[in-house]
Amino acid sequence: MEQTATRGDDRDRGGEQQVATNGAIRPDSAPVSVALLGLVAPAAQRGHSAVDVVALVVAIVLAPVGFIIGVVAAILSFRKRRYVNGLAKAAIAVSLVLSVLGGAGAVVGGSYLQHQAHENALRASSAAMCSALATRPGVLTDAAFGWPAVGSTIPAYVTAVSDYESWWTAVAKVAPAKMADAVAKIVTTAHTSAERITASRVVDHDRDYADMRAVAASSPLSAWTATYCG
Q1: pTM of the model
Q2: 41 phi and psi, to 5 degrees?
Q3: Is 20 among the domain residues?
């Protein structure tokens, strides 16, 4: 009976040794599921190689390169220890996060630079018009864009209106593309008033002023110059 028991004990120990050889338990005899092998580090093997450390450092400094080194470190760690070292995992995670943040930053930065370049181009294209408008200070702050007052005679008023139209025509020639229609509308309204006076030989200043005031009220010219002529 004692011999039988001894053989049974030997078989039990042999079974334990076989299980240990197959890697189903840790060296400290704590059972681990086979599915977790490679993820859980055995207590006796939790060391870091130089590649693991380098991978994490490079991941912080240069994320894309750190990611590659982290993957290499993970492969080497698994081949050598049958689990992936924590530093290698951290290097991969950190490099991915920093790469995403860096990519987002590049997109935002690129968009900002593109916007600034566009704004600078609009300022450059508006420079000539801004200079022309500067020759008549306050013209855009006037409710009717500086429409002339009634003169002592009809010819004097007609001359003033003609000069007004000529000046805005000169402004229209140097206006940027986005303001061409706005300035052309001022010129057209002034020309219509001049033709009406010439045809009727009657000065209707109130009507002329009201027409130009309506144009000025809806014109984007004041807002444009406030942005691009400063």
Answers
A1: 0.57
A2: -80, 125
A3: yes
CA distance 50 to 121: 53
Q: How many domains does the chain have?
A: 2
From residue 119, give the alpha-carbon distance in Å to each of 111, 227, 228. 12, 10, 8
- Residue 49 falls within a domain, yes or no? no
Report the alpha-carbon distance of residue 120 to residue 114 in Å, rounded. Answer: 10
pLDDT digit string, tens, across residues 182-203: 999 999 999 999 999 888 888 8
Give the domain extent around 169: 135-228
pLDDT at 22 over 60: no
Distance CA 225, CA 217 (A): 15
Take residue 125 and report the two structure tokens written for it. 């294209």
Q: Is residue 112 part of a domain?
A: no
Please tell me the distance from the alpha carbon of residue 226 to that of residue 179, in angstroms, as a whole number: 13
Q: 203 by DSSP, 3-state: which?
A: coil
Please, what is the average pLDDT of the chain? 79
Residues 6+ apart with CB under 8 A from 74: 84, 85, 88, 89, 92
Residue 75, pLDDT above cutoff 70: yes
Q: How many residues does the chain have?
A: 230
Q: Which helix (H) or strand (E) holds 218?
A: helix 205-218
